[in-house]
Each structure stands twice: as C-alpha cells, then as structure tokens.
Task: inverse folding
C-alpha cells in the first residue's frame, strides 16, 4: 500500500471543525478549502492556478498588463487543465478594464478580483450583471464599508507583510480593525501567512478564509525560474523589505521584495536622479518618470529569465517559511493539517 501523501493526519473531528470554520469562504469560492491563491504576475498563470484549484484551493489568474485577447487565451488554457472554479485578478488602472471584465464574463469566469485601487462602479456593475462574484481589496474599515455598499461580494484585507505592492498597515492590525465589523460578506485575510496555524487564528477571529501567494511560488507546478525559486528557498523574513524612498518630493510606491543588486542600484539611481533635478539638468516630472521606470520589466526578468540579481524578487515576509519545492496539493494539505492539528490541540 502506498504511503499517505501527507503523514500524521489530524483527527476527523478537528478536520470537521475546520471545515465548519471555512464553510462560508469555501461556499463563496466553490472550492474544497477557503484558501485563495494570491495573484502574482508571471507566476499565477494557467499551470499554478489550475494546480491550486485541483488541490482544493482556489487559483487566481494574475491578469496584470495582459490585453483582452491574451487574457482570453490564459482563461481557456486554465479551463483545459481544471474543471474546478478559479478567478481572475484585474488591475483597476488597466486602460481596458471594461473589456477585461467582459472577457472574463464571455468565458464564464465566476469570480473577478479587482486589485490596485478602488474599482469604478461601472466595472463592478458589469461584473455582477454578467453573473460573476466581485472581490475587492480593502485597506481600511471605511473603505471596506464603502466597497460593500458599492456591490463587492467579498473582501480581501492584505497586510504590509505581503509581497509586491503593499499598504502601510500590518494584517494583525487590519484584522482587528475590520473583521469584527464586516459580517455581511466574506472577508479573506492576506499578508505574511505561510502556515495553517495562522489561517486558523484568523478564521477564529471571523475571517472567511485566507489568501496566500509567496507560499505557492515554489510549488512544483509554478513556472517560476529555478533561480527565482532558489532565492525564495534561501530567503529569510528579514530579507523581504519594502522599497526605500530617498526624497518625499519623488514618491516611490512601496514594493516588498528580497534584496539584491537591483534594489541597491535603485537607491543609487534615485540619488543620481535627484542630484540631476537639483542641478537643473532635468525637470521634476521627467525625474519622477525616470525613477518609476527603473523597475520596468524587472519582475519578468527575475521570474521568467531567472535574473535574480537585477530583476525584482517580489516576496512576502512569509518567504522564510518556504523551505523546498513541493506539489501544490502537498502544500495545501500541509496548511490544512497544520490548522486542524492546532484546532485539535486547543480543544483538547
């Protein structure tokens, strides 16, 4: 007889109790577990998304800068790999947001996740009228309430521990601020989550489920370059730091990433650009663009090409909990078992 994929299964009573805590989130997603895959550009594509959904979690395609035709191809390719539900993450600032929403609807995507800002009411209305469930990111309680009034069917609250573009508040604080007050729609927590015990704690606080990104980068099915995965496996929580801004006159959108030669060179680039501005060699608007364009294409260089010295290694602080490459189903089952074991221990 083959050995179980994940040994030391928790008691059936604990798994049933965990199912009960996850019931609202799992029902909303249509998945076995209330665990969403965080949408990571160049990583959250057909292979990882389908693998997560097949494993009982809920995969989410990262549309990023894709055009509608390209997104349609990715949706169809994902549907060929899984019969399970999955979602699509759309950036609200995309110039063809309305067309992207329609592309999702045309291909029967059941969940549309709006990220990167407050989605326009027209996009929410179109998604809902087309039969999709709308998920929005809420960085504060007042905005969470506004989004629910605007039609959001569920919310994600993402703390500053997350990878990529981040807000200023930790998940620990956001959860205390928002979870007790938003009960009429499911609220998923995100940012710095890498183990099942943490998922359980937030479920007990009232979360409907959790979203994890960094933990899934090193899934076997992830197409991330071997160099990119090795950087995550070697990385510690203290290595994933937000972008440093040198001058408040030239704002830098904070991005949490593993430090490398590129991040150090970005500081030099900012300093030199600011020097040129002060010397009258470049206008302020042009200087701001030079700073903003430094990282153009940097994430693709790291994820796809494997240039981990000059590319962007966007990672959450949970990167320290990534220790090896594993199949997605094994990672998901580990998270579930950790949560159930913790629940069994608490209940004696």
Result:
């Amino acid at each position: 007889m083959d050995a179980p994929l994940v040994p030391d299964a928790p008691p059936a009573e604990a798994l049933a109790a965990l199912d009960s805590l996850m019931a609202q989130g799992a029902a909303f997603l249509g998945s076995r577990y209330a665990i969403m895959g965080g949408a990571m550009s160049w990583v959250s594509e057909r292979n990882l998304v389908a693998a997560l959904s097949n494993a009982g979690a809920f995969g989410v395609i990262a549309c990023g800068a894709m055009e509608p035709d390209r997104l349609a191809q990715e949706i169809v390719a994902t549907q060929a790999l899984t019969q399970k539900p999955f979602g699509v993450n759309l950036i609200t600032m995309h110039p063809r947001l309305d067309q992207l929403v329609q592309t999702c609807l045309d291909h029967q995507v059941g969940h549309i996740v709006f990220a990167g800002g407050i989605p326009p009411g027209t996009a929410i209305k179109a998604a809902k009228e087309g039969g999709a469930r709308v998920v929005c990111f809420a960085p504060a309680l007042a905005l969470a309430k506004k989004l629910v009034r605007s039609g959001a069917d569920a919310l994600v609250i993402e703390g500053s521990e997350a990878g990529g573009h981040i807000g200023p508040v930790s998940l620990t604080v956001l959860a205390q601020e928002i979870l007790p007050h938003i009960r009429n729609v499911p609220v998923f927590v995100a940012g710095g989550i890498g183990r099942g015990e943490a998922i359980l704690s937030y479920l007990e606080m009232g979360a409907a489920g959790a979203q994890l990104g960094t933990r899934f980068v090193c899934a076997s099915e992830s197409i991330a370059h071997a160099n990119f995965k090795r950087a995550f496996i070697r990385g510690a929580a203290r290595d994933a730091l937000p972008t440093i801004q040198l001058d408040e006159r030239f704002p830098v959108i904070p991005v949490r990433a593993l430090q490398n030669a590129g991040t150090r060179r970005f500081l030099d680039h900012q300093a030199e650009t600011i020097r040129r501005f002060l010397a009258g060699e470049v206008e302020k608007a042009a200087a701001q663009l030079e700073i903003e364009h430094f990282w153009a294409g940097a994430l693709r260089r790291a994820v796809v090409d494997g240039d981990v010295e000059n590319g962007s290694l966007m990672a959450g602080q949970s990167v320290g909990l990534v220790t090896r490459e594993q199949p997605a189903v094994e990672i998901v089952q580990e998270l579930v078992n950790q949560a159930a074991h913790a629940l069994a221990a608490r209940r004696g």
DSSP finds 13 helices and twelve strands in the chain.
